[in-house]
Specification:
Length: about 180
């Protein structure tokens, strides 16, 4: 049975009871979902807001709201379902995503002008695992095609995700706060 894009993601979060015994704290679909204007669906699974990460208590850290990048010294894991690109998305200005994300993503040092409306950059190391479908990752002047089973490690590069296929693409992302690589 394949993965159904746009379906809820089940989160199983473990922890400890007051005696130190390992237990399941949360088991169910993530309630932290957002749909972007172009149809991309985001499901936030878990966020850490410091490093080393706190792992005590029963707080649902998936409730920590973030835009794309994790908090300083933190991390985030999310599932993204990206539909095929539409004429409306292609018609947006090339700086659409970077402006939507704000100054920290708009014109960082060394970043070239965006060549696609979804182009943006975070100062993070990203682990992207393609779960189903296919997707193209555009860089400043090149691109790479990824398919189900591929894993990409991205190090604070200017990029855009573009689904040129006919089926949605589901990608699991883990973003970890990093140091600026450009001087």
């Amino acid at each position: 049975m394949g993965i159904n894009p746009f379906s809820p993601v089940r989160r199983v979060i473990t922890g400890h009871d007051k005696t130190g015994k390992a237990i399941v704290l949360i088991d169910g679909d993530t309630p932290y979902t957002a749909k972007r204007a172009e149809g991309t669906m985001q499901q936030r699974i878990w966020v850490t807001d410091k490093g080393p990460a706190e792992m005590d208590g029963d707080k649902d850290r998936g409730a920590i709201e973030v835009r794309i990048a994790p908090p300083a010294n933190g991390s985030i894991i999310r599932m993204l379902d990206i539909p095929p690109e539409s004429a409306e998305t292609r018609a947006l200005p090339n700086d659409h995503m970077s402006k939507m994300l704000g100054d920290q993503h708009h014109s960082p040092k060394g970043v070239r002008p965006p060549r696609h409306p979804n182009m943006h950059r975070t100062c993070t190391i990203d682990y992207a695992i393609v779960m189903s479908g296919e997707i193209d990752m555009l860089l400043d002047d090149t691109e790479v095609h990824l398919k189900a089973g591929d894993i990409l490690v991205q190090q604070a590069t200017n990029h855009a995700w573009v689904n040129r296929g006919t089926e949605p693409c589901r990608i699991c992302f883990v973003l970890i706060d990093g140091k600026e690589p450009l001087v």
